[in-house]
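DATA SHEET
Item: assembly model
Revision: 1
Owner: S.N.
Input lines:
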Amino acid sequence: MENKRITDLFAESLDQNCDLSEKQKAILRSSLELFAEQGFTKTNTSQIAQKAGVAEGTVYRRFKTKDEILAAILAPLTGQVVNALVEDFTQHRFDVEYVTLRDFLRAVVENRMHFVNENYKVIKVFISQALFQQQLVQTLMGEFQKALQENLFLTLKNLKQRELLVDWPDPRIFQFMAGTVVTFLLRVLFMGPQDVEAEIEMTLDFLEKGLSPE
Amino acid sequence: MENKRITDLFAESLDQNCDLSEKQKAILRSSLELFAEQGFTKTNTSQIAQKAGVAEGTVYRRFKTKDEILAAILAPLTGQVVNALVEDFTQHRFDVEYVTLRDFLRAVVENRMHFVNENYKVIKVFISQALFQQQLVQTLMGEFQKALQENLFLTLKNLKQRELLVDWPDPRIFQFMAGTVVTFLLRVLFMGPQDVEAEIEMTLDFLEKGLSPE
Amino acid sequence: MENKRITDLFAESLDQNCDLSEKQKAILRSSLELFAEQGFTKTNTSQIAQKAGVAEGTVYRRFKTKDEILAAILAPLTGQVVNALVEDFTQHRFDVEYVTLRDFLRAVVENRMHFVNENYKVIKVFISQALFQQQLVQTLMGEFQKALQENLFLTLKNLKQRELLVDWPDPRIFQFMAGTVVTFLLRVLFMGPQDVEAEIEMTLDFLEKGLSPE
Amino acid sequence: MENKRITDLFAESLDQNCDLSEKQKAILRSSLELFAEQGFTKTNTSQIAQKAGVAEGTVYRRFKTKDEILAAILAPLTGQVVNALVEDFTQHRFDVEYVTLRDFLRAVVENRMHFVNENYKVIKVFISQALFQQQLVQTLMGEFQKALQENLFLTLKNLKQRELLVDWPDPRIFQFMAGTVVTFLLRVLFMGPQDVEAEIEMTLDFLEKGLSPE
DNA sequence: GATGAATGAGATTTCATTCAT
DNA sequence: AATGAATGAAATCTCATTCAT
């Protein structure tokens, strides 16, 4: 299954949103791009207006402040990002029973790496905001936690029962898996997209070794 | 084992810098607090002056621009830190020969976790800036890479020769070790300092398992 | 005595104006409310539209500018009111011959107090505008002066002839009568509608005393 | 005794205020003039800056908003205006015992008329604000009420005891006196300064007649 | 006629930086 | 060295008015 880009999902969700006029959608699209490119604070409303091809006043007609633009972008995205991650696990859980630990790890990690590769610009916006906005962190954490409980952790239990996975606490196992993805994310964030294929096998070697039952 | 060498990087670097008057140090301390709390752009120079207990003009006596304050804060990270990291490994490498892989991992990882815990504010500011400023990363990466080559990688070679470590490429091994620290860092960044002792043994279990020779 | 002739000036003038659609009347009503509450400049057209339950564009269908709304609100004051005042005196002069000075004063003053009570919002808007716009005053003063000459002053003459009124110049007498009403007006403007009945007798005591012939 | 202009009193109080820099004083002086000339809402900060001979940013250094400028002007003035009125009565009460009612009325009314004549521009600013700001009304009313109790009403009592004044409630008597001044004020507000000498005797005739004991 | 999104001119406000004291 | 008022360029924001539907 192919991951959709968050930006594409965002564009789609904008298209379906009859609440917003075409110009207002253009404003949000342009804002997201500029925020991802330069960061929120370095982007000013005249840039947004220009990129969206509207007058500066138009920006403020629908969105009372610049912060409200950001909120209008992030609010639907938090849902979408978490959902994108969740849906995926859900599908795997019900459709496939992983034959080996490596199969499982591959499915999860490879998928995340692609996701990171394709969405790092949006992720940047999230991280830059989350660094100074606990509330955003709370929201993300909350949704994420719930998603993990209902998806990944169920699969982990199954793998442990089948003695394909070391018997450590779920959060711990998740943390180690996440560690490899996060390292990958950092490289992507700071150096641009990386070659997943070149990374994945070695990463799986490590995780498989570290997470196999004794 | 001497793990205390890397402690509060920023405070130390201030103390050692005899160049700076007390007021100038106060300015940097206040700036770091504010930058870490609100971000660089949302912090204005009058806030800095007020928190430091100096006049706004005084800020500009030593630091020609607001960016220069930022640079002065991040300087230890790009300068001394890499040196501190290097020194550390250097000492361990020459003074002690690690008896077990776990000893080695513990020395490196525990140390880094403490470092993260004690310097997360500088790191936070650095990351928030680096997200939209590749140049910052370049400098750090360059020095870091060099330091790794000349220090950690030599130790890895030694461990491999003694068959205490899996025979994978050095950068790969480093990456997995880094992964665990980075995950720890994320938690610290978004949720404040964490309990190293509570984490370290489980992390070592995982790394030891994943990095032992076949 | 028929004192009810001058009642709610603005409402009446709206009702009589068949030129205006229901929506247009709603616009004027809402505007008056808002102007009286917040002032003209602090009221924006979107508030008016919202309060009137119409679209912002609709406001501009009938009224070419925001100032034109104001003019439409103040129109009755400069047009009909003066007429109403005139008519009033006219009737009294020809229909009734006041038996006592007090009767005359009561008719005039009580009537004006009710008028003030019921139309203080329009008056408030008028005054707030007139304070920094002499032109507004000119128009009203002109018409008022003429109306006085042709009505009140004739009655005064009659009363003087019958030795019911002190023999002072008409404008002077008018000014003293007006003074009591203006004081009443001030209280209404700043503290909302007042109780006419509670005031009138004492006011008449004073005026009667001050304006009786020697 | 000569009334001092409020603007002069204001200028003096500014001079004594070491809190404010010269430019900041200039800003307040210019603001008051412009507000008196054009009204608050029609005055923009660039006009203020220009008239004060400062940069627009300077306006906002001390005063966070335009409203704060207005507040900075009105706050000290409310005190001064009321004090100007109060002090006056105080002096008369202790120094002079009025020989006749007319003497008393003359002292009070003539004084007020001159005050109105000289300060109508500032009064305009007060009224225009008070119309839409109950709080300002409250403050003024409160201080005024207190001042009346402690000054005018004492003199009224004395006059009544000496049977020089009709035995009506104090507020009522004040209201009638005020009525004549307010009427005068209205003419001044809307038509500019009036000739006090030409008015005063006739006004006194009326008041004396209306307020003499039976 | 009615709508409400769009406009753009202009107002308010911010703030890094300078500079006279 | 230290101060803090002053600056002005640029940002955010407001709103009367227009206009396509």
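QC remark: The mean pLDDT of chain D is 87.
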